[in-house]
Structure formats: C-alpha cells, structure tokens
Design brief:
By secondary structure, this protein is an alpha+beta fold. The protein has 3 helices and 7 strands. It has a 7-stranded antiparallel β-sheet. Helix 1 crosses helix 2. Pfam families: Bet_v_1 (PF00407).
Length: 159
C-alpha cells in the first residue's frame, strides 16, 4: 500500500466566506444544479451534515463512474476549512481511499485562495499515475470554476 500526496490551489474573486457557503455548506443542492452532467445528486446517508456524516454522490451522465460515498472528517465554517474522505464507490478501483483537506483563505485582492491537500492511499503495489491525478484535478477545477461563475452571475446569493 502506498500514499501519494498532492497539493493544489485555486483562486477566485469571490470572498472566502461566501465561496465556502456555496461550495461546501450548500454543495449538496448547488452543485447538481450548476453541473448536473457531472453530479446528478447528493444525499446524506448517515449523520447531520457535520463530522462523521456519510454522503452518497451519484454522478451525472458525463462521468464514467456511478457513485461514491464521502465521509465528512472535519467542518469549520468559521475558519472556512473542510476535510472529507472518499470511502466507497466505483471511483476507488485501485485506491483504498482518498482524503482531502481544504482551506479557503482571503487573497490580498479580497477574493479567495482555496488550498487543498489530497492523499491517495493505494491498494497493494498499485502506482498512481500523474495523468490520473491530473484528470481528477481538472474535474475539481471545473467544478470550482462552475460554482464561481454561478456566484458571479447571482451576486445576492450566499451572502
């Protein structure tokens, strides 16, 4: 079993608290609305939305996967931090689990720098390829930019 860690960051003109509310706190409702081809639905299987909550994400037609289950590991709206683990689903073929820690921090221009650290724990001697990680990053970036565009088009939401 191996562990591969990847760090990334995205920037936005949207302030951190507003972006966190939309991208994290209301993601179950917003993301299927903004990108239904990527994520068809999200439902809470167990818990109240806080740490320990298990969510089932059903992917949309544009995805080659059907579903995944995520566990919320930490959620701190005051400090705009969030972490979760992918614990089940057809996305985990050669991967035991994927855990992501995300922090939304203010940028000098009043926008956001979203910093993420993702750890991939692989099964057996499976070696994660850079192109697999890049594909996941591109999907996450697309999701982030779609939420940002939605907030720019709807300036009165999530204030």
């Amino acid at each position: 079993m191996g562990v591969f860690t990847h760090e990334s960051q995205e920037t936005s003109v949207i302030p951190p608290a507003r972006l966190f509310k939309a991208f994290v706190l209301d993601s179950d409702n917003l993301i299927p609305k903004v990108l239904p081809q990527a994520i068809k639905s999200t439902e809470i299987i167990e818990g109240n939305g806080g740490p320990g909550t298990i969510k089932k994400i059903t992917f949309g037609e544009a995805s080659k996967y059907k579903y995944s289950r995520h566990r919320i590991d930490a959620l701190d709206p005051e400090n705009c931090t969030y972490s979760f683990s992918v614990i089940e689903g057809d996305v985990l073929t050669d991967i035991e689990n994927v855990s992501t820690e995300t922090k939304f921090v203010a940028s000098p221009d009043g926008g956001t720098i979203m910093k993420s650290t993702t750890k991939y724990q692989t099964k057996g001697d499976f070696q994660l390829k850079e192109e697999q990680v890049q594909a996941a990053i591109e999907k996450a970036t697309g999701l982030f930019k779609a939420v940002e565009a939605y907030l720019l088009a709807n300036p009165d939401l999530y204030k």
